[in-house]
Design a protein that fits this description.
Blueprint: H1 7-28, H2 35-42, H3 46-52, H4 56-81, H5 88-104, H6 107-111, H7 115-122, H8 125-145, H9 153-166, H10 170-173, H11 177-193
Helix pairs in contact: 1-2, 1-4, 4-8, 5-11, 8-9, 9-11
């Protein structure tokens, strides 16, 4: 009979599984990451893994959601501290910091090659829809903290996601990559600030 895990042990194991899920996705991609590799890295029996997640995909998704939530929370917190008038350039620079952070965290490596698509295909549809709805609300919340109200939250969220997904093609864009992304973010910001969307 397996021993019962304390709350502290459960928290530690869940944190380690999330960390290693991210590391594996960066190293191997979504498709080639395995439960066997995750449990080896965290040094737990395979059965223990299934106490936390019903599938590899749920573990990988949980790791990505953890980073996504942390980034949204940080954006909203920073937005509330911005003093003075916000203009298109300041807001563009603010948003670009988080696109760059996503790049540093290796998120775009994970989604390139269809990693996110593979993951979403294997997850329960209601879970994916819930994530997308929360993400949409997070963008509106961040803009709201800056005193910016958008007409169409779904459209603004989809536009920012479109830029996000485009970032998985960094290699194909070459040296002008960040300039292209900044131009797109700035164009979107101008439309938002002008009340067009």
């Amino acid at each position: 009979m397996p021993r019962t895990l304390s709350n502290e042990e459960r928290g530690h194991i869940r944190r380690r599984l999330r960390e290693e899920a991210m590391n594996c996705m960066r190293q191997y991609g979504v498709k080639k990451t395995t439960v066997d590799e995750l449990v080896r890295r965290v040094n737990i029996p395979k059965g223990t893994f299934y106490l936390f997640y019903k599938s590899k995909e749920l573990a990988l998704f949980d790791a990505l959601q953890e980073i996504d939530k942390a980034m949204h929370d940080e954006m909203t917190a920073q937005a509330t501290t911005m003093i003075g008038g916000i203009d298109a350039d300041k807001l563009t620079d603010f948003i670009m910091t988080f696109y760059r952070k996503g790049d540093e965290l290796g998120i775009f490596e994970i989604i390139s090659g269809g990693g996110l698509e593979i993951l979403f295909r294997k997850l329960p549809r209601d879970l994916v829809e819930q994530h997308l709805n929360e993400d949409q609300g997070g963008i509106a919340q961040m803009l709201g903290a800056l005193g910016i109200i958008v007409k169409d939250e779904a459209l603004v969220s989809a536009a920012f996601h479109g830029i996000f997904y485009e970032m998985s093609h960094k290699a194909e864009m070459g040296d002008s990559f960040w300039d292209v992304i900044r131009a797109q973010v700035r164009g979107l910001v101008i439309q938002i600030m002008n009340g067009e969307i």
